[in-house]
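Hey, resending since the last one bounced:
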Amino acid sequence: MSNIPTGTVTFLFSDIEGSTKLAQQHPDAWPSAQARHHVVLNEAIATHHGHVFQMIGDAFCAAFATATDALAAALAAQRVLHAEPRAETGPIRVRIGLHTGPAVPRGDDYEGYLSLSHTKRLVATAYGGQVLLSQATEALLHDQLPPDVSLRDLGEHRLKDFAQREHIYQAVTLNLPADFPPLNTLDAFPNNLPVQLTSFVGREREIAEVKRLLGTTRLLTLTGVGGTGKTRLSLKVASDVVETFRDGVWLVELAPLADPALVPQTVAAALNLREEAGRSITTTLTDYLRDKKLLLILDNCEHLLEACAQLATTLLRSCPHVTILATSREASGIAGEVLWHVPSLSLPDAQQPSDAKQAIQFEAVRLFAERASAAQTHFAVTDQNARAVAQICRRLDGIPLALELAAARVKSLSVEDIAARLHNQFRLLTGGSRTALPRQQTLRALIDWSYNLLTEPERVLLRRLSVFAGGWTLEAAEAVCAGDGIAQADVLDLLAHLVDKSLVSTATLDGEMDTPTSGAMRYRFLETIRQYARDKLLESDEGERVRDQHLDYFMRLAEEAEPKIRSAEQISWLHRLEAELENVRVALDWSGGGANIEKGLRLAAALDPFWGVRGHQTEGIEILRNLLARPEATARTLLRARALNTLSMLYWKIGSYHQCKIAADEALAIGQELRDTPTIADALLYLSNAKIWQGSDAEAQALLDQSLAMYRALGDKPGVMESLVTLGVLAFRVGDYKRAQSWLAEAVTLGRELDDKGFLSAALRYWGFALFHQHDVAGALRKFQESLILNAEIEDKQGVAACLAACATVALTREQFERAAHLFGAAEAVLESIHAKLLPTDHDQYTRNVAALLTQLDEVAFKAAWAAGRALTMEQAIELAMSDEQ
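The C-alpha cells again:
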C-alpha cells in the first residue's frame, strides 16, 4: 500500500448486478463465474495503476491517482466482460461509479467519509454494464477523453443522503451498451422526503435492523428520548427502501400539530388528498390507500398518541399493502405494533486510549468531528484534542442532537473549554449521579448549558419564539417578540445569533413570489428546543402577553390577506397563509379562552377565501362552530353575522346545503336587525347558493336580485362579480342561455378589471357553455381556452380539469372523437391527481358528453384513446386543448 493515492483521489466502486440471485439460481456455476469477474477487475485496475483497497463480496473499491486511469480501467473491465462467452450463469453485468474527492489513507482503508459515500451512492444508481461519473470526475476528464470515448450528460439527480443534487455523466464508447433505463436515484420514485442538509453518520447496524423489521411488520415504531435521531434514522431508512414501495414513501410531520382531530387531515395533506363533500377525510384517505403499496412515516407521534393509534389501526385493517414507520417517545399500544428503541451513537470507553485514530472509529466522535468541521473549517480531531472530544461525546451520552449543538460551539470555544463547561453543568443538574437519570435529563442539561451561554436579550427572544408553531418569518418575530427589553430593530441580530448557535434553523420560503416577504427566510426550532423554550416562557411572567401578540399578528395578517386573495396577488397570499397554518391554529386555540373570542372570530372569518380555496373547509367549519358556540360570542353583533356568513359559504363548499341555509338565515336576521347592508348582501348571496342546489330556483333568483342590487349600491365590486357569476349559473341551469350570457359577460368585464382570476375563469367557462348551447361552438371554445389558461396560471387543477372537459365537448360536437376521448381522459387524470370532483354544473355536462362519446367509438378504440389521454401530463393536455385543430 506504499503507493496508494492520497490527496485528491478518483475512486472506482463496482458490483455485480443481481449477484445474490445469480448465486442462488446457479450454486454450482457461480463460484467460477465470480472468480473470473475478480480476475477481470483486478487486471483492469492494476494495468491502469489503480489500487484495490477493499472488497466486499463481489464489490470492488479501488483508488486512482488520476481520473483518466480510473476511466480507462472501468472501460477496460466492461469491454472484457461484455466480450466474454456467456457463462452458465448468464452474462455477468457490472455497474461502476467514478468519483473524485479528498481522501487520506488510513491503514488498508481511507479517511474521507464523504468521498467514499459519494462513490457508493453513485454506483448504486447505475445498471449492469453502465459506467457513471460524478461532476467532479467529469470536470477532470473534460479535455482528456480518448477519441473513441464520450460522456453523456444524464442531468442532475438526487442521491440518497446528499443535500446537493449531483450532475451525473455516463461513459459511452464503441462496442459497449449505451442505452439504459432512468437512473435509480430518489427522483425516480414517488416521495416527499426532504433533502438532508448534513451527512448521515454511522448507524450501519441500526439501519440494517430497521430495514429487516420493515420487511416483517406493517407497523414499526422507533422509540427513544428526544434528540437520539429517531426522525433522521427513519428518513435514512426510507430513502434506502423507497424503490421497494411501488406508490412511494411519504413523510407526515406531526410535531407542529396541536389538535389530535387534525391527524387524518395532516396525513391526507402529505399525500395531496383533499376533502370530498359528504365524506369524512378518514374515509377518503382509506379509500385512496386501499390498493396502494407505500410507506407512511408518522413522525413525532408522542403528543398525539391516541389519534395516531386510531388512524393507524384503521389504515392497517383496510389497506393491506400500507406499511407505517412511526417515531415516538412511547408506544401507541395497538395490536401488531413492533417497537425498536433507537440507541445513542457508539462511544469510546473512558479506559481506552484516546488518540485520533482510535477515537474516530466511534460514531459519536465522527458525528462531532463532521459537524465541528462544518462550523469551523480548520477543525480536525487530533492526538492533542482527541481526549477532550471523547470526553464531550461521553458526557453527552452519544445523543446526536446534543453532539450537534456542542459541535457548533467550536467557533468560539476550544473543545477543552466545551468539555469543562459540560462537566460543570452536568454536576450541577444531576447532583453527581448523572447515570441514574434518563437521557432526557442529559439533553436538557445540554440545552440548559447552551441557554445559559446566551445573553439576556437572546434568552428572552428564545423564550418568546416558542409561541410559534411550524416556523415563523422575521416580520412575525419582530411583531410578536419585540417589547419589554427587546427593541424591534434588534430582533434581526438576536435571531441571527440564535441561528449561529444552532438553536434556530432556517429555510428559504417556497412559493412566496410577489409577497411582502418575497425572498425572505423562514425560521423554525428543532422540536426539542421549542419545548424547552416553551417551558422557560411558562416559567416567566410574559407568556400571556406574548400569546396575545401572536394572536394579534395573525389576525392582522389574515385580514390583510382577505382582499388580496380576490386580486392579482391571490396565489402568493394563499401560499403565505398555507405556510402559517400551524400558527393560525395555535392563535385560534388561544383565542377560545374568553377574552380573545372577538379576535378569534375576526381571524377565522377573515380566512373565508382561504378555507375554501385550499381545501380546509371542514376545519374552518369546526373552528367557527366552536367559537360561535361560546357564551362570549352569542351576542347578535356584526362580527357574529360575518362569521356566520363565512360558515355558510364553507357548508356550501362541502355540499351541506341545509346547514348552509341555517347559518345564512341567522346572519341575514342579524344584518337586518342592525341594518347593515354589506352583511345582508353577503347573507342573501350565500342563502341563494343553498336554494339553487336545493332546487328552489325561483327563490334563489329573488335572493340574487336583491344581493346584486345591494352590492351595486355599495360599490362592492367583488360582491357584484360573485353575484353575477351565480346568476349566470342559475340562468344556465334553467336553460335561459341568452340571459346567462348577459350576466356572465358583465362578470367577465368586472373580473378583468379586478384581476380576480378565480371568478374570472369560472365566468368565462360558463359563458362558453351558454354560447355552446346557442350553437356558437367556435366562440365557446375561445372562452373555454381562455378559462383554461387562467386556471393554469393560478394552479387550480379542478378548474383545469373542467376546462379540458369543456374543450372535449367541442371536439365531440365536431366529431373529433379520438381528440375528445384524449381530453376527457386527461381531465379524469388531473382530477384523480388532486382527489377531487367537478362542481355540479361541470359534472352534469361531463357525464352527458362522455355517455355520448361512448356511442361514437367502439370499446377498443375508446379505451385506447382514453388511456392515451390519461397518460398525458397536465401541461401536454393543456397544449392539446389549446391547439388549433378544427
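Residues 425-441, 509-519 have pLDDT under 50 and may be disordered.

Sorry for the duplicate.
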